[in-house]
Amino acid sequence: MALHYVSHGEGVPVLALHGWTPDHRLMSGCLEPVFADLPGYRRLYPDLPGMGQTPAGSIDSSDGIMAEVRAFIDEQIGDEPFVLIGESYGGYLARGLVAERPEQILGLSLICPVGTILDNAQRNVPEHVVLRSEPGVVESLAEGEDFTDIAVVQTAAALKAYRSDVAPGLDAADLEALERIRKNWTLSIAPESGPAYQRPSLIVCGRQDSVTGFEDQYVLLPHYPRATFAVLDVAGHNLQLEQPGLFATLTREWLQRVSEEAG
Fold first, then answer.
1. Domain count, the chain
2. Mean pLDDT per 10-residue section of the chain, whose length is 263 residues
3. Does residue 15 contact residue 87 with C-beta atoms inside 8 Å?
4. Residue 163: DSSP 8-state
5. What is the reported pLDDT for 1?
6. What is the reported pLDDT for 262?
7. Dist CA 38 CA 78 (whole Å)
8. Which phi-psi region, left, alpha or beta, contains residue 50 (left: φ > 0; alpha: ψ -120 to 50)?
9. Which helix (H) or strand (E) holds 260?
10. Which of 17, 43, 170, 252 is the Cys-Cys partner for 86 at CB 3.0 to 4.6 Å?
């Protein structure tokens, strides 16, 4: 299976893995503005199996998805060192890749990652709240739009980003396949199963994230001794849409650390 993907730029490969159900636009939408004035990077945005334009085929587990990600890396990157970014479920996969390829990965960034607890019902998460809103935004939603389900910031700008970066992927997802895969979500090669990852890292969580939270990520910190760990206020699971300025600043600073150490 060949993963559908979009690529921008030339230089050091950057692999960006989106979360569960959306597609590559979740990552390109928030990251391309960051890389706009940072030449020297080749950004790779694949659609994971069962999401976007990549079919699920017979895949029935996270191991199956990981196998396709490995094949994608081998085809598009080969043995070249690369930078890795993962959001939510993509962060879980990214941590798994670090366990397998620590020497090849120059730096790791996790955006609202799934922590050590995969079962949603057992996670330590806050109740959903709305902290910032603008008149008329909720009233402008079309029937069936689920923007308000997890949005902490309900503004026109956040809704515009949601409609361009998140909603198209949700509409394209193969929900039947994802339900099948979800039953076998645990990776056989567990993240954090190897030695501590000693390269520059970034873990960004939303203080009001009602999906993956921020508490379950604390236990990851000893494994990533070079990680900046930031918990942003007025930010839910779509942190990159709700705090785009802080997100961009933290990401650029992390990329600077990665660049300095890579030489």
1. 1
2. 95 98 98 96 98 97 98 98 98 97 97 95 96 96 93 97 97 97 96 95 98 96 98 98 98 98 83
3. no
4. I
5. 75
6. 86
7. 23
8. left
9. helix 244-262
10. 17
> Which CATH number belongs to the domain containing residue 189 in this structure?
3.40.50.1820
Query: What is the span of the domain harbouring residue 170?
Result: 5-262
Three-state SS at 119 = coil
pLDDT of residue 241: 97
CB 229 within 8 A of CB 133: no
What's the token pair of residue 112? 């609202």
> Which position has the token pair 């909720």?
138
- 143: Cβ contacts below 8 Å, ≥ 6 apart: none
Check if the beta carbon of residue 155 is closer than 8 Å to that of residue 134.
yes
CB-CB neighbours of 156 under 10 Å: 12
Q: How many CB atoms sit inside 10 A of residue 138's CB?
A: 15
